[in-house]
Specification:
The protein is an alpha+beta fold. The chain is 30% helix and 19% strand. The protein is built from 6 helices and 9 strands. The strands form 2 sheets. It has a 5-stranded mixed barrel with strand order 4-6-7-9-8. Strands 1-2 form a two-stranded antiparallel ribbon. The two termini are 43 Å apart.
């Protein structure tokens, strides 16, 4: 093996060179004896050597690839922030449409299921009477109260009283069909019909309400128990099958409230809208990572 010069200049006071060879012991060697020399072969140490042009080019290429790869982080964050801006516009427009539906003049209830699918939150009017012998109960529920909910905003728990929404079959005399009507909220000590006989009206009435569709079961929410008449979420098809009505469901408005009976108007016309938080998060991440990238690869600031 050819002798290799090892520069120990960064670590030794004297800048000496160790010559290391692998000649047989019988051959005359000009190497100065050092503790590193063995009989037949000596290890070569090289603690410092300058980079070759090829190695420098390879390292420069790797740095360039890494630099542009890191640039994907702020670019992606900017794209997600812009997407959330568009999502927020869409959500605000949808909320406006729902509020307009819920405050528009009521129309006659259509019986076509395909038409009803496009009319959620639309005000409709029907005429007929209730069948109180087949009440259903969605529980637990708290009464919808905009003023109270505004006061409780940000609290971990609500101060509202727990109870149930009373769902009663309603025979529409003008349409000749039976539908489901959410009469409204009752406290838990008034869930049983005999505790609110005054509100169990039997006369034919005209009712105004909002069309509602089946809601999805939320994570960790119990399953509906048809046998025990315990309903935790609105399943229009299952409810209509149990009480033998058409799969049509409306929430009665506040004007339907009868003294001693359920309190109507239990519809929350709102949608979850947290897009502004996402916009701030993504654009903030974009700004922070853009600055770090600029400082590292443009200004060459040490980190």
């Amino acid at each position: 093996m050819a002798s290799v010069k090892v520069f120990l200049s960064p670590f030794l006071r004297t800048r000496q060179v160790l010559n290391i060879c692998s000649r047989p012991s019988t051959t005359v060697c000009n190497c100065k004896p050092t503790p590193l020399i063995r009989r037949n072969e000596v290890l070569c140490l090289k603690l410092y050597r300058p980079y070759s042009s090829v190695e420098a080019a390879e390292e420069s290429s790797e740095d360039s690839l890494f630099k542009w790869f890191l640039l994907l982080i702020p670019v992606t964050a900017f794209g997600l922030g812009t997407w959330q801006v568009q999502r927020r516009k869409w959500k605000l427009k949808l909320i406006e449409e729902l509020q307009a539906r819920s405050t528009a003049e009521p129309v006659s209830l259509p019986t076509d299921p395909f038409t009803l699918n496009d009319l959620e939150y639309r005000r409709v009017k029907v005429r007929g009477y209730f069948d109180h012998s087949k009440e259903l109960y969605i529980l637990p529920r708290t009464m919808v109260d905009a003023d109270r909910e505004a006061r409780d905003a940000g609290r971990l728990s609500s101060s509202g009283e727990s109870g149930a929404n009373v769902i009663t079959p309603f025979y529409c005399t003008d349409l000749g069909i039976r539908i489901l009507v959410n009469r409204g909220f009752v406290p838990k000590n008034k869930v049983r019909p005999e505790t609110r006989q005054k509100g169990q009206i039997t006369d034919e009435i005209e009712l105004v309400g909002l069309v509602r569709l089946t809601e999805n079961r939320r994570p960790f929410m119990p399953h509906n128990n048809e046998e025990k008449n315990n309903w935790y979420y609105r399943d229009v098809d299952a409810m209509s099958r149990v009480v033998e009505t058409e799969p049509i469901f409306i929430d009665s408005d506040m004007s339907s409230t009868i003294p001693g009976g359920p309190i109507g108007g239990q519809t929350r016309v709102t949608l979850r809208n947290e897009h502004m938080q996402y916009i701030i998060t993504w654009y903030g991440l974009c700004a922070a990572t853009t600055y770090l990238w600029y400082a590292k690869f443009v200004r060459r600031l040490p980190f």
